[in-house]
Amino acid sequence: MTNQGKDRDGDLSARIERAREATKPPPGRNIAQKYNHLSLAWRMTLELVVGAGLGAAIGWGLDELTGLTPLFLLVFGLLGFVAGVKVVMRTAQEASEARDRTEGEDEDGRSEGR
Amino acid sequence: MAEKEGSGFYADPMGQFEIYNFFGAGAVEWSSFTNSSLMMLIVVGVSTLLLTLGASGRALVPSKLQSMTELTYEFIRRMVSDTAGDEGLKYFPYIFTVFIFILFSNLLGLIPYSFTVTSHLAVTATLALAVFFTVTITGFMKHGVHFLSFFVPHGAPKPLLVLLVPIEVISYFVRPISHSVRLGAAMLAGHAVMKVFAYFVAPLGVGGVLPLGMMVGIYGLELLVAVVQAYIFTILTCIYLNDALHMH
């Protein structure tokens, strides 16, 4: 009797396992995940452009004030570009940290859907 | 939205973003009550109503509404404590308000004939500036003048600081700009694309099923964008707050 029960339990857990496998979404095919990657790419592009643009704007303003026309535009344009790259690097670092965190959570069995 | 009738193909995908005086005609001034103001009031009203109703039940077995409210609350609360630490929880009411406002603006803006408040840079820039000033003031209140060392990289040789400090300062100011432009652009682009497809439906006759099908797909994507953009805005707020609370 107990033996039979055990067998049925084993059967059931195998069936649950099979059902889980069947309903599991295929990895990398998730549209939300794709959108997240896309928005991350957009975010980095935007940060790079904004950095260079902001630097150039500051330089242009300083040129207007001092009259040394191309000097500050060039210097601050470059500084702004470097600042943009720096922000992008930080974003990338945050993204990889977040991915490590979610992967750790997936192993614990509670996925966050980031 | 002014659309000409019978003048062949006419498309004005940006017309939906127009701001006009809600009461009567006339130029829009700073004190005007516009369609955007009305939509913001609706957003605030709907979100307050839903959350209050959801929180009022307090049943042990929650209803759908209560469950939604509690899940949202706990989700944001965990985000704040994970990203900005326990100290950041002081700012949880503010962050939750920002999240709910953006989320409901994005979602209610998807209803046909409504208006997407967050598609305007003026609104997203105000939200981002509010976050920017909150974070900066928090930094100065917590660390005093020492907060300025945030702009000085550790262990850098002294002569290089002439270059490095401006770079750090510029990247600090890049954040509110990209913070606001991203949200505004994402909402603007999605709605404009949807409108462009909509203009193809009628002229194509039976073939209009194709753009209509595309619109259904894009609408689904826009629902996703609405939620994800609100999430991104909120988690960036938490990250900036964390920078100010616990300097590197």
| Biggest sheet features of chain B | none
Rg of chain B (CA only): 22 Å
| Count, helices of chain B | 6
Rounded to an integer in angstroms, the radius of gyration calculated over CA atoms of chain A is 26 Å
**Euclidean distance between termini CA atoms of chain A:** 47 Å
What class would the helix/strand composition of chain A place it in?
A: mainly alpha
Uncertain stretches of chain A: 107-114
- Share of helix among residues of chain B? 55-70%
Overall mean pLDDT of chain A? 78
SSE order of chain B, one letter for each helix or strand: HHHHHH
Residue share in helices of chain A? over 70%
Count the beta strands of chain A. Answer: 0
Explain this structure.
- The complex is a heterodimer of chains A (114) and B (248).
- With 114 residues, chain A is mainly alpha-helical.
- Chain A contains 3 helices and no strands.
- In chain A, α2 runs antiparallel to α3.
- The radius of gyration of chain A is 26 Å and the shape is rod-shaped.
- The C terminus of chain A is likely disordered.
- The N terminus of chain B is likely disordered.
- Classes of the chains: A mainly alpha (114), B mainly alpha (248).
What attributes does this structure have?
heterodimer, A: 114 residues, 86% helix, B: 248 residues, mainly alpha, 6 helices, globular
SSE layout and pairing:
The complex is a heterodimer of chains A (114) and B (248).
Chain A (H helix, E strand, L loop, with lengths): L1 H22 L7 H36 L2 H40 L6
Helix pairs in contact in A: 2-3
Chain B lengths: L34 H22 L7 H21 L7 H17 L12 H23 L17 H41 L7 H37 L3
Helix pairs in contact in B: 1-2, 1-3, 2-3, 2-6, 3-6, 4-5, 4-6, 5-6
Short description:
Chain A has helices at 2-23, 31-66, 69-108. Chain A is mostly helical and 114 residues long.
